[in-house]
Each structure stands twice: as C-alpha cells, then as structure tokens.
Amino acid sequence: MSHNSFGHLFRVTTWGESHGPAIGCVVDGCPPRLALTEADIQPFLDRRRPGQSKFVTQRQEPDQVRILSGTFEGLTTGTPISLLIENTDQRSKDYGEIKDRYRPGHADLTYDLKYGIRDYRGGGRSSARETAMRVAAGAVARKVLEGVTIRGALVQMGPDRVDRAAWDWAAVEENAFFCPDRAAAARWEAMLTEARKSGSSLGAVIEVVAEGVSPGLGAPIYGKLDADIAAALMGINAVKGVEIGEGFAAAALSGEGNADEMRMAPDGRVLFGDNHAGGVLGGISTGQPIVARFAVKPTSSILTPRKSVDRFGQEVEVLTKGRHDPCVGIRAVPVGEAMLALVLADHLLRHRAQNPDAPTEARLPRN
Amino acid sequence: MSHNSFGHLFRVTTWGESHGPAIGCVVDGCPPRLALTEADIQPFLDRRRPGQSKFVTQRQEPDQVRILSGTFEGLTTGTPISLLIENTDQRSKDYGEIKDRYRPGHADLTYDLKYGIRDYRGGGRSSARETAMRVAAGAVARKVLEGVTIRGALVQMGPDRVDRAAWDWAAVEENAFFCPDRAAAARWEAMLTEARKSGSSLGAVIEVVAEGVSPGLGAPIYGKLDADIAAALMGINAVKGVEIGEGFAAAALSGEGNADEMRMAPDGRVLFGDNHAGGVLGGISTGQPIVARFAVKPTSSILTPRKSVDRFGQEVEVLTKGRHDPCVGIRAVPVGEAMLALVLADHLLRHRAQNPDAPTEARLPRN
Amino acid sequence: MSHNSFGHLFRVTTWGESHGPAIGCVVDGCPPRLALTEADIQPFLDRRRPGQSKFVTQRQEPDQVRILSGTFEGLTTGTPISLLIENTDQRSKDYGEIKDRYRPGHADLTYDLKYGIRDYRGGGRSSARETAMRVAAGAVARKVLEGVTIRGALVQMGPDRVDRAAWDWAAVEENAFFCPDRAAAARWEAMLTEARKSGSSLGAVIEVVAEGVSPGLGAPIYGKLDADIAAALMGINAVKGVEIGEGFAAAALSGEGNADEMRMAPDGRVLFGDNHAGGVLGGISTGQPIVARFAVKPTSSILTPRKSVDRFGQEVEVLTKGRHDPCVGIRAVPVGEAMLALVLADHLLRHRAQNPDAPTEARLPRN
Amino acid sequence: MSHNSFGHLFRVTTWGESHGPAIGCVVDGCPPRLALTEADIQPFLDRRRPGQSKFVTQRQEPDQVRILSGTFEGLTTGTPISLLIENTDQRSKDYGEIKDRYRPGHADLTYDLKYGIRDYRGGGRSSARETAMRVAAGAVARKVLEGVTIRGALVQMGPDRVDRAAWDWAAVEENAFFCPDRAAAARWEAMLTEARKSGSSLGAVIEVVAEGVSPGLGAPIYGKLDADIAAALMGINAVKGVEIGEGFAAAALSGEGNADEMRMAPDGRVLFGDNHAGGVLGGISTGQPIVARFAVKPTSSILTPRKSVDRFGQEVEVLTKGRHDPCVGIRAVPVGEAMLALVLADHLLRHRAQNPDAPTEARLPRN
C-alpha cells in the first residue's frame, strides 16, 4: 500500500512538491521491448503545460522530462522507468502570505491537521503540478495499449454544455479549451475572459473516451474496471464527481430505455445498439468504447476575499493572489486521458496474468 | 492485489456465488478487543434482506450470519474474522433458459468473454447477493469507527427527487424505500407499483453521510479519501455515477459560490459555513460530515423482450423471468452505508499508522 | 496488505483457529477452466494429517475439505475459491492449564503483548493446524503449475543427516518421516521413539525441490523468487532458517568452486554443470531445478518443566501435556511443498502479466 | 504489487541501473516531523561505498545523495521522500566483452530469458550498485525507529568463523571487514589478499542485530516478522541462506536445549534466559534482541575462465575483468543492517495501525 502509487501491475509512484527542486515518478511493471524515448512523452506534457494561453496559469515551466532509468538503446527493459522534471520557475515569495492562513477550498487546513506540517509553497504536494507526472506516466501507458485510442474533451464550462450533435474531435485541438463544439468554444472564450477580469472562476465537466479496448478488462467485485476509473478520475485535483456511460442520467431512465441491446456483426463480433453502459458491464469491459465524465469544481483561488482561519486559530480573510487558472478544468483534460490510460494499462496486465488466452475482440463463440 | 478484496489495512475478501452452497467473507486487520457477536451484524443484514416488501425480490433467504473465526469470548482477537451465510433458497431451475443467452445490461457476456466459463445460476459471482457480505463486513467496520454515525437514504427514484427541506432521518426507517421525505415516499409507492405491474424498472440515487469522522483521514494523490469512496460506491452493482459534496453541480458554480468559508467555534474547532466539499479537501477529511451520492441504473431484468445474442453467436430475444427487484437502488442503501464504513475504517488505520498523534477533532492550533 | 494473505496474483487468505468451528481459506486469482474438485485436494491433506503414525500428534481429524465457491461443474471459474475444513476434535479442556501461562518457545506471550487477548485453546491462530489450509491451497496451485513436479523430503532429524548418495524419492512415501534414505529412516525411528518416551523433542531439516519450472519466474530487487521462497518457508511454524541451492555452505566455497558452468544441450536448451545456485540467478529462475531447505526447531511442547511467567507477571513452571508431535518437522514436509507451489504459481502469473511472450524453456537465442 | 518496492506502510521503491545517469528511490509512508537532511543519510552511504580499501571494488563514486522531495525546513512532511545519487564513474567500455556472453553466477542469462533485453553495462539493474539506495532508505528508516540500535558484523569469511567470545562491537569499525573479532580480522586480511592475487573470491556470513525493538511487531501467518526479515535478507545480491536466532543449528538441538526460559525482571519486564529464538516467537517480536544471519556466496566474477554460453547459443569461455570485490559479503554488512531497519520500520507502522495502545516494552500484566 502506498498513498502515492497508482495501479498494481503497471504501477506509478509520483513524488515532488510544487516548489521543490524537481518532481518525478517511477513506472514499475512496464513490459520490456517497447520503443520509448523522451520524445514519446514530451508532446503530452506540452499539451498540459501552463502558460500556453491567457486562460491558464502564467507560470512558465518548460516541463522538460528526462528518462533516468528503465530503457536501453531506446527500448524499455522491464525494469523501473524513472522520469524527472526539474522545477525551474518557483517564485516562492508569492506564497509567503498564505504560510499561516488556510485558503478555503484548498488542502492547506487538512494537511496541517493530518501531518502537523506542510510545505505551503504553491500548495506543496497538493499542487496540480503533480499531475504533470501523471501525464508523463500516461504517455508510457499508451505504449502498452497498442491499438487503443484515448481522447478527452471539455463538455461543459460553468453551466454551459456542448451540443453533442456538433461534436468534432478535430475541434478539440483547435481551441484553448479542448472543446469539441466550435460554437461552444466561442461562447466559453467570452465567459472565461469575464471570469478572469472579475477574479472569479468556473467549473467544468470533462469527458474521456477509450476506443479499441479489449473485452475482459476488469474483474468482479473489487477489481471492477469502472470502480478503478472512478478512483482514478476522482483523485484528480478539484474533481467532485465521476460517471460512466449514461451516469447520473441513468437513474431517471426506465429499464427499457437503458437497455443496451446486442447484435452480431457480420465478422462475428458482438455490437451494441447503444452504449448506455459506457463500455463496462459487471465491472468488465465489453469491447465497446469506454466513456467516462468527471466534474471539476471552480478554481478555489479567487480574488474575492473569503472568511477563513489561520493556524493559530484566529479568524482571517483570505484573498489569493499569484498565478492561477480561472478554470482548472481545462488542464484536467490531458490529466483525465492519462489516468484512463493508466487504469487500462494496469488492467490489461492483470487480465493477461489470469487469462492469457482470452480473446482481444468481443467475438462469439468464445470457445 | 486481489480482485475480490477491498481495503488495505482493514481488508475484506468476499467469496461465493448466488447459487453455491454459501457466501462469505474474511475481514483481516480488525483491531483486537472490540465486542463482536453475530447480533452486531445481523440487524444490518436484515435491513438489506430481500423479501421484506413487495418492492424487492421475493427470494426468501434468512441470511443468518455465522462468525467462524477471529473472536474469542465475544471479543475480536486481531486475527481474521470469517463470516459465512448459507444459501438456502436456490431454485436453480429458474435460470436454465439464460444458460446460453446473454441478458442485456448484465455481466453474462463479459464474464464469458473474460473467463470462457461462467456460473449462470442467478448471475453467479456477479449477483447482488454478494453485497450481503459487504453489509456484514460493514457492520464490523462500524465497530472500529467509534463515535461515527453512517446513514444513507434514497434521494431520487426514477426522475423524482426528494425535497431536501422535508428531510427527516426518522422517516428513512418508516417506509420501504429508505426515503427521508414522507411525501416522496408516497409518490414512489405508486411509481414502483406501476413499474412492477408493467414489468419495467426504475433507477435511483442514494446519498450516504458519515458524521463524526476525524480530520486527517485520506492522503495525497493516490490515497485520497474521496477517490477511495468513489471506487467503493462505483463498485456496487449497477452503479453508474458517484459524487462528493456538491458533485456535478459544482461544475456550474462560481468560485465564490462554491467556497467553503471557515470560522472558529468557541471550543476551538474549525467550522465551515457550508460544506460544498462534502467533508474532503485535497483528499483528506476536514472533520465536517462526509457526503456522497451514487446513481443506480434501472434494473436490467425486465419483462419486455430485448434483442441480444447467445454464446454460439446467434441473435436472440431475451426476457427475464424470475424474482427481481424493480428498483435495485433500494437495497443499495445499506450497501452504500457499508462501503462508506469500510473505506473509513481502512483509512482510520492507515492514518493512525503514519500519524499516531494527530488530533481527532479539527482543532487549532495543531501543535 | 494483509497479515493473513500470501501471494499477489495467485493469492491465498487463510482464517481460523485451532479450536474454533472451522478453518478455511480463499484462493483468489486462480485462472479459469482448470479441473478442480475436492478429490484433487484431499490426498495432500491426508498426507499432512495428524494421527497417521505414532510419531505425530494423535489428534484425530478427518480434515475433510469442502469447496464452497469458485468452481462450476468441476472447473474453476476465475472467481475466488473458498475452501473449508470443519474442526471436529477439539477437546478444549486439555488446554485450561495454559490459559494464563506462557509456554516457552510458543507464541503465547507475543500474542498477548501484541493484541492484549488470545484464544489460548490449542494455540488459537498460531496453531500448526492452520497449515492444513496452506496444503489445500497448495493443491490448487499445483493445478496452475502444469508440467512442474514439486516434492519434499526430510533430510536431517536432530543431528542425523541423510546420505545423499542413498537418496531415493520412492523411499519418501514408504516411511513415516518422508525420509529419502532408507537407512536413515531406520535410525530415525529409534531416535524418535526414544525422544517420545522421554518427553523430549527433535528438530529437522526439510528439502523441497521443484522440477520443470520455466525460466524467467521472479524479478529483480524486491520481487526475487528466492526472497519470496525464503519468506514462504520461514513463515512455516517453528522454522528458523532457509537456504537456496548451496545455501550456507556457499559461504565456505571459492568463486571457482561455486561457479555454475553452462553448456548447450543438443536441443538448444541451456544446461548447467552443477546447480549450486538452486535454480535461481539474480532472483529469476534459470530453468534448472529449484532447490530449497529449511530448518525446523524441536517441538517446544515437552514434558520437562521449564521456567516461565504467567500473564499476571508471576514466575511459574510450565510443562506441556496434551497431544503433540515430538518432531513437528515431519509434518512440515507437505507444508513446505505447498508453500513452494504457492510461490511458483504466483510468480508464474506475475511473469506472464509483464512478459506474455517469454519462452517457457531456457532456449537460446531468446529472439 | 511491485517488483521494485519493499515494505507496505513504510515503502521503498528503487530505480536505476549501474551505468545509467543516476539511481534513486522513493520512500513513501514516512511519518511527518522527523528531522531529516542529507547529513543523516550520507554517513551510511560512505560506510558502504566502494573504493575505501583494497578489498572492495576500486570503482570511485562519491555517492552523494540528494533529497528531492518530502522534507521542508529539515523535517519530513509525510509526503514521499525522493532520494537520488548520480552515477559519475561509469566506464562503459569495460563491459563491452560481456555484452553477448552470460557470466556464470550472474543474472545475465536470466534477464535475457525473462525480458529478451538487458542493459549489460555493469550488470544493469542487477548490479549491487542498487543496494546504495537500500542503505539510503535504511537511514530514513532508522529515524522512524527511535530507541532501536541496528548493527551488523561479518562473522565468517570463507570457512573461517569469528570467535564469539572475542566479540567486540567496537572492533567492527576498526577493520576493513566489519569483523567483531580482532584476531579473525588479521587472518582475513591475509586470506583476502591471497584470494585477490589469485583472482579468486570468498563467501561470507553476516550477522545483523536489532536491540530495543518493541514487542508485538510482526503478525501471525503471512505477516511474520521473521518471514519478512528472511525475504529482506535473501533479496540482497548473492545471498543464499538466512537464519534467525539459533537458525539451522536449532535442528540439531533437543526441545530442552532450545527452550527459552522466561523470568520477570524487577521492573516488570519479561526477560529470557537465552534467546535461541532470535527475538521472534510465532512471527512476533518478543522485546529481546532480534538476531539474523545471512550467507553470501563468493563473488561470481573471477579471473579463472569458466565455461558458458552466449546469447546466440554458442558455447564460450568467460573470464571477468573489470573492478570487482573479491568478497562481496563485506559490503553486504551495511546493506543487511539497512534491510533490517526497513523491515522493522514497516512493521512498527503496521503494528501501530492495528494496535495503537500496545505496550512498547515486554511488561506484564499486559492489561
């Protein structure tokens, strides 16, 4: 058991604080002989990186990843892969004033109550900076998931949702919000500019989708694929809700309305009329796309003063200056993709260990 | 790693199929010298048991639990606690017709694709019958959580939500739905009767609340309390969504609207104006009530025929006869409470191991 | 983490006390579609069972195992296998006099210091009775290890060692000591009769050998096959030492004397001139036989009074009556075999997860 | 599960190869507010470091450790501690000739059979260089073990054992062999010089002792303290045997001879006449010193040519040049101490989680 590790067989342990010398992770259990260099990882980090638009924090970090172990001549060796990013832009002075004060909505208070000590600089360990290592590890996980496509998009900003009929994956890479609906992206630009000017912030909902996943990943009871996806996404900073497939809307449907009818494709694969289930039945993947969504609360650091307390038990007002995202949900898109990749890579190895001869497509008859 | 174990230090392993000779679990890591007999567990099982009203499956199981190990003269000994319930009402003949057919919305297909074999009788391992052991183990977990109150309620059936202003915990025990709003309970009775007559089914949303939880439970990054709660609740049969505190609604709030302002109580404890966070900040409990909700899909077994396939790759129609709940969400209430208890007991031990001198109340100054 | 589980992917959790209603275990992670009934397990239990000769405890237990879950129509289903043996001969009255006294060499004192409570009847959880479940689980592990032969023998009783030149595996099943040397068996019969008459006891050394093991099992650093074998064997009751291959004798050899030279077999497999390494290099199996030995101390329960203390802090004399083995090492033979099987089955699954295309024989070239 | 992590609650994950840019580890689960800087770790690394005498490898590494995370203002914060040592003296050219050849007694062959790829430079991941991180992590573990003294000594080199009557802990730091017997140290100097000249090598036995350990560490069945010590020590490079207390010699004792009689000290603590058990009964610490020994085989790299094979399946002769220890057992002394520290720190946290009010001394009455 580790509080800083994720996964069982494809296992990632991250370390590092926002304002320490570096952050890093160890990826243990990666299969050998996969092609892997920094160039496979860097593009995913660049996509998540702050400082790319006026809508995300202006902290400037090159976020240059280095592979310190686990590869030889460009191939993984089966031994632990150590990844490291140096922290180069740390401006610790910005954070002096919150040294003794607990910012509402942040982990400041709970860290102090738990540990009796905290590195207050930039949130220390609880900083979203740690998610850079999840994205890096996720890039390694994608190598394990040959044939699987994992993509994410922002489907709601504040109260404004995308029009699913207008969904275009190509649009996601064209705007600063990972928004699949060009009209929504235009509206959001105005919303976010307004929030930024007023020192306010906005929440968001992200959808992540994995296509090409083998059936059979996941397992009964406490190894359920959807339960692990839920933990993975809920564990991203500021996330307050997770749903799979139809999600909370399923509660309002009838059994008939929610049924995923099945039929046979001419090539012998099982297809589903709908995918209300989001690609998981009984905790095990069906071979249909895996669809999950998660809700990110509005950034807690805002310019409006809020009542709080300090570590001496005095009531104070807190107003967060410094460099922050008005909508942290935007940067959560690549993080959500990475977490989904980590869950799937781990479950692929777990499935294979117990079921080495299971089919990689939903074909019948099974035997 | 185990696909059938839950928790790390307070660890539960369940076993058993719906129509085997028995189901059971092993609770490992329970602290010694807690008073524990079958009488501490049985009431929780009775509350979950089928056959109590016309709204839940008519399968009649006494669900009499036996403690086979881990206690001595009425006290836990620190060694593994084995709990067992015999299956007494198994009517295997009811299930013959689904032997070769995959019921839509069930785990039939995915088990066959994964394992190449399945015990089709009553869903085998994927049957909700397994949740009886979660409830039993949860009763043991409650013993560990001295001073903590864990309760649950159905807050939505189909599209109909309770009026939170009318919430009365006492009402929960008065109706067949664990409904805290007496007016809603009356409406639901009509809805469910109608669904039952027409062979249809309804979804539901359940809320579970833990009061009296120490601050400091949970840990950064991958040991987050809310992430583990998400996994625990998503892992309950038929659950498609989980949220903590404000949940998905947080996405539509502004940073100001979602802020949990803090103040000092006269006794030196930190109090929160609101509890949008649901009792968890940065993955660590604040000392406020922990509030989580989860959505249960409508029962997949309905009387309307649905298109499906059989294990030979032929298209068929499936109509589920047999004894089923028109709203499985009802029985998920005690299961949700139990899962929350399991998460909290495990995290209490994990917290204590690393932080033996941490405060049990949110008092400042910490040192 | 569990104090009562063994293995990671092929994972066994045992429960039960010597004088409770039953003992049992849950085997999680077993691959599906292996033929398994009670008849596959019972012979191994019968081999370990007390009461078979005058040299082992006269406690009469039929030790009849029942499979309660995880199989369907004689095949494993991939779900957890629950095994149970009822305790039928419990004579609790024999143990009243050690209720408050700590027997030297037993776990009585340490359980009380740790837990503040103990089930003193027959040693409770620390009784060797628990090893019956290891043997049962080991029988399941053997099913996973197709093509692997696992055998054990007593190679030393008290100070008297077998003559390795006289080794005959057939002899092992012919005497009451699992002794591979017929002459030694005859000597031991006299020794043990003498020890028994005088109320004394004898230690022993057991050797276990696995032939037909694939190369590649085990992993660098903390997943070493030999480290896991060491833990498995040291964890057997009364064991004080473990060695692999040449073992402690290797310390006295020169590098030349200990070198395992290699050559190519005509069929392309790598063979070793000697097997000083005991089948493991760098923590990974070589494909040669895996050879391990472990030392069992003389039974602590003897008829000569020994100085001790009671739980009130008073000095007392303790003399153990009741039914005990004069040489517990004898019954440790099938237990050692079982533990080796459990380690190998777990590592086979672990290896397969990360290296699905690794060769199952030590053939070169690898690619 | 991870092949490169050790421990459960105090958990260490190491990474890095002999000739990569760096090696490192992550220590997760360390309690907060312990004083920790590089100066607490460096002395232990210096003690293990190569190049200190003519008897250990002449590789010159400053082995300067850096703490990259997990501390703040000189105190641990409860978050993961990342330690890193750069590899500065890598001379890769030395190893070209073993690129395609498998050195007898090394992990070269098994890595290739398992992974189909290996970093052959200096043994890659299987190099003893990795043990530097165990020593570094062990230094952190010692911080957790307040009041515990952990020491080690070489008690046998080749066939020559120390005289236990001449044991002096002070001597250990005075010679190049960690030898507690000054006369033996003088003999060993001659032996090792001779071995070095002839290109041969010697094995060794190391004893590690922990004093001041609380009773109650360890747990029944599969969480046994001695089983975990066995795994920890057997997992050190080149170790072939492990024993606790009397060890293999216990097999030759009678029950009377091996009994650890107990009496009460005037201060209410339980004392033992002897400590044949080595401080562990039933897998749980007694409060007496914990005593373990392990056997290290002679260095496999010798100057005498040995028959082997290459990766193309050709028979070859291998002679290892390069910088190597004639007796790797010497450097295993600080590694053994570190591993014992890691086991004890982990078990202290595990014990505390389940038994927060257990006594820290072996005092009776317990309640």
TrEMBL record, chains A, B, C, D:
Known role: This reaction introduces a second double bond into the aromatic ring system.
Cofactor list: FMNH2
Record's catalysed reaction(s): 5-O-(1-carboxyvinyl)-3-phosphoshikimate = chorismate + phosphate
Keyword set, alphabetical order: Amino-acid biosynthesis, Aromatic amino acid biosynthesis, FAD, Flavoprotein, FMN, Lyase, NADP
This protein's record includes keyword Acyltransferase: no
EC number of this enzyme: 4.2.3.5
Positions that bind NADP(+): 48, 54
Organism: Paracraurococcus lichenis
Matching SUPFAM superfamilies: Chorismate synthase, AroC (SSF103263)
A GO MF label: chorismate synthase activity
Annotated cofactor note: Reduced FMN (FMNH(2)).
Top-rank taxon: Bacteria
Full protein name: Chorismate synthase
A Pfam match: Chorismate_synt
Broad EC category: lyase
Family the entry assigns: Belongs to the chorismate synthase family.
Pathway stated in the Swiss-Prot or TrEMBL entry: Metabolic intermediate biosynthesis; chorismate biosynthesis; chorismate from D-erythrose 4-phosphate and phosphoenolpyruvate: step 7/7
Xref: PANTHER family: CHORISMATE SYNTHASE (PTHR21085)
Record-listed FMN binding positions: 125-127, 237-238, 282, 297-301, 323
InterPro entries for the chain: Chorismate_synth (IPR000453), Chorismate_synth_AroC_sf (IPR035904), Chorismate_synthase_CS (IPR020541)
